[in-house]
Amino acid sequence: MADDRTQKDRPSLSRQLLPAVHGVLARPLSSYYLLIASCALLLLIGLTMVFSATSVKAFAENGNAFTEISSQAVYALLGLVAFWICQRLPAVTLRVLGRVLLVVALILLALLAAITVLHSAEVIKKPAIGPIKANLNWLYFGPVSMQPGELAKLGMVLWGADVIARKGPALGHWRELAMPLFPVIGLLFVLVGYNDLGTMLVLLALIVGLLWAAGVRLRVFGALGVLGLAGVGLLIAAASRGAGSGTAGADNYRWRRMTAFLQPLEDCETTTSAGQYCYQLVQGRSAIFEGGWFGVGLGKSALKWGWVPEAGNDFIFAIVAEELGVIGCTVVLALLSVLAYTGFRIARRVGDPFRRLAATAITTWLVAQAVINMGGVVKLLPITGLPLPFISAGGTALVVTMAAIGMLASFARAEPDAARALNARPTPRWVRLVWAPLPPVPPPRRPGQARPSAQKKDSGNRAPAGTGRRRS
């Protein structure tokens, strides 16, 4: 008996080896500071790499090497404004904002699909209706461009978390999932996937994260996986009929891109239809090989001179590997890992079901998108045209990502221990006006009551995150 007590009282090996790390993580606001630090460093690396990857091409085309980085810096400033606004919004406002964003995204996606369909059917000569132009997954309103699919991600996070949190324990019944969640998801998949299969896959991962955090039964994930695979198959087949940028009767570009990573590298050197779709992979692998352990040096990439397609966007991770080497890639991966850990930590510790679900969905979205992007660059996953969060060039994607991080920061401040700490030593009024208001103080825990993150285990089934119960 004494030996058992000794074993229980003895600290774990990780606590013995990393006492400083455990001390930092035990602080009330550790989630908030980890989130801010990791995202700030990723944004700084992203701005640096965008300038390095695009300066040569911008100078050759416009005579100004700062064209692309100037645009990206403006979007970064807009993203910081979005971060500041979303950090200040209460959960009630975020629930309303989710419905508005989802409706706006659906309207814009329908407009984008309509213009594309009319142009494919040769009803209109150009993919434009008045001042509104369409190009793949982009809409142009005069000089302003945006990606409706990015708004759809954020709208789905907030609206889906609100719907699931309101349903509560009733979510265990299939009919509660059927209305209104699944019809809206199906419509969103069709509108997004028609032009952008990669964004649809991220939406699928996001929704899986939502349902997992809600404690939905495992059989629902099986049904969702079958429907998702069937939908991907239909959208790939639709490319031969002219869907997206496909051409009726031409080679199915979606199928070629999805299977290009399975082609041997020697076939990618050819000019055949099978080889031209994995040209990006060859150049990306060449950039990684040239970088080695320590890279060729920042700004000294030779392959960004037009050899690596989309060097500043989809394949910017290849430029990171060439210029900063394995060390630079490891730093990026470490920062993304810290972001993932912090996001799921916030979801585990926050008490409100809506915040818990939204935090899980945001983290799943960013992690899935990063994995798909980097997996495509290193030839482990298909190329889907997704940007690397914080690192790739892109306006709408960066602004929406920063807004999502602002919401995560708000949730981190709402953790019970963090809220008590902030209210125990309140900051000056001008700081709260400039930065963020104080979160509400949660009710004190009763003696012996576990933290909100503590989850009960019942017969091997994972307990729900405050909504339903999952059973196999």
From TrEMBL:
Q: What keywords were assigned to this record?
A: Cell cycle, Cell division, Cell shape, Glycosyltransferase, Membrane, Peptidoglycan synthesis, Transferase, Transmembrane, Transmembrane helix
Q: Known Pfam families for this protein?
A: FTSW_RODA_SPOVE (PF01098)
Family (UniProt): Belongs to the SEDS family. FtsW subfamily.
One Gene Ontology term of the biological-process aspect is:
peptidoglycan biosynthetic process
> What spans are recorded as compositionally biased (Pro residues)?
437-446
Query: What are the top taxonomic ranks of the organism?
Result: Bacteria, Bacillati, Actinomycetota, Actinomycetes, Micromonosporales
The way this protein sits in the membrane is described as: Multi-pass membrane protein
- Reactions mediated catalytically: [GlcNAc-(1->4)-Mur2Ac(oyl-L-Ala-gamma-D-Glu-L-Lys-D-Ala-D-Ala)](n)-di-trans,octa-cis-undecaprenyl diphosphate + beta-D-GlcNAc-(1->4)-Mur2Ac(oyl-L-Ala-gamma-D-Glu-L-Lys-D-Ala-D-Ala)-di-trans,octa-cis-undecaprenyl diphosphate = [GlcNAc-(1->4)-Mur2Ac(oyl-L-Ala-gamma-D-Glu-L-Lys-D-Ala-D-Ala)](n+1)-di-trans,octa-cis-undecaprenyl diphosphate + di-trans,octa-cis-undecaprenyl diphosphate + H(+)
What are the EC numbers? 2.4.99.28
Q: Where in the cell is it found?
A: Membrane
Q: Where is this region: Disordered?
A: 437-472
Q: Name one GO cellular component term.
A: plasma membrane
Q: What is this protein called?
A: Probable peptidoglycan glycosyltransferase FtsW
Provide the function of this protein: Peptidoglycan polymerase that is essential for cell division.
